[in-house]
Design goal:
The protein folds into two domains: about 200 residues, Chemotaxis protein chec, CATH 3.40.1550; about 55 residues, no CATH class. It is elongated. It is of the alpha+beta class. About 35% of the residues lie in helices and about 25% in strands.
Length: about 325
């Protein structure tokens, strides 16, 4: 029969184990060892905290524009607020959605990839009722949308899609097109369940009702577009390309329309004189004969030159800067 340890011997062994216990984190730092950072390989982080902050700042402006557009379209006050921008797998995104719901697939060209816009029934039905002129919600909120209701909500999706298209055009000249609508999000294979996506959650308020709208953007097909978001404003994350960012900024500014007006002459006169002006009357201006005309850009004097005719249209030939006039005087 084997020997059994007494209680005193067991206590002595436990005390010996405590003396040779593993060192604590502070002891490891004092010894100069590097601390270990946990990493979940099932949830690889594609975006840094700085990237998430940049996306949030950009989308907050778009959310306000969506609220203004929906208010004008529904002819009533619609409030929208950006709740969060998170990274998660597509499987986790779909699991967190209600069923049934209003699940819309949007095709983005380029890159020819798909993103999803989900509108909770708790806010989809109030929007439909508001679109039809009703002030109070009637009916259940936990039922699938009918074919007619899908056509009505499609118009609201088009309004939201228009604002998203304006936002994403900051990255490239692209086009968004709504392709599929479903009530069960589990039936749409937008991406593999383990694919990382960026989930943008927006809270909307219509009358006394509120609900969530979720935008799902798979990271891999839209990686280049995300990279351009992070270089907006001349700041790049990663390789430094200040000259390239400057050229892109200048190229974008060249496409901005500005109003240019040419002032041939100016004068002041009393109201009584203006009232007696007839065809053939002569009005004396403050511009001397041979003095150049002034061209204004967005109301600011910029150029001096001569007015004339080019291809049967009035034209202006710039001959100098407006500031040169005061310097030579």
């Amino acid at each position: 029969m084997p020997d059994l340890l007494s209680q005193d011997e067991i206590d002595a062994l436990l005390s010996a184990v405590e003396e040779v216990a593993e060192p604590t984190a502070s002891t490891a730092q004092e010894a100069g060892e590097e601390s270990v950072t946990p990493y979940d390989f099932s949830h690889p982080q594609r975006l840094t905290r700085e990237h998430i902050r940049t996306l949030r700042n950009i989308h907050e402006v778009s959310v306000r524009n969506i609220a203004a557009s929906l208010s004008a379209y529904l002819r009533g006050l619609v409030e929208c607020r950006l709740i969060s921008i998170d990274q998660m797998t597509y499987g986790e995104f779909v699991t967190g959605l209600p069923n049934p719901t209003c699940f819309n697939i949007i095709k983005v060209t380029p890159p020819g990839a798909l993103m999803a816009l989900e509108i909770n029934p708790s806010i989809a039905f109030p929007m439909i009722d508001r679109l039809l002129g009703a002030n109070h919600l009637s009916g259940s909120l936990d039922r699938p949308l009918t074919a007619i209701e899908f056509r009505l909500i499609s118009r609201i999706v088009e309004v939201i899609k228009g604002q998203l298209e304006l936002l994403w055009r900051r990255t490239a000249e692209l086009k968004m097109e709504r392709t599929i609508q479903e009530t069960n999000p589990h039936l749409v294979a937008l991406a593999p369940p383990t694919e990382m996506v960026v989930a943008i959650v927006i809270e909307a308020h219509v009358n006394d009702h509120s609900g969530l709208m979720n935008l799902c953007v798979p990271y891999t097909p839209f990686q280049s577009q995300f990279g351009r978001f992070f270089s907006i404003g001349g700041y790049t994350y990663g390789a430094s390309d200040k000259e390239g960012a400057r050229k892109k900024l200048l190229a974008a500014m060249r496409r901005v329309p500005v109003e240019v007006t040419v002032s041939t002459a100016r004068t002041t006169a009393k109201a009584g004189i203006v009232g007696t002006v007839k065809p053939g009357s002569i009005i004396v201006t403050d511009r001397h004969l041979g003095e150049p005309a002034t061209a204004f850009v967005e109301g600011l004097a910029k150029f001096l030159g001569t007015e004339g005719v080019h291809r049967r249209k009035k034209a202006f030939r710039a001959e100098g800067l407006a500031g040169e006039k005061s310097e030579n005087a």
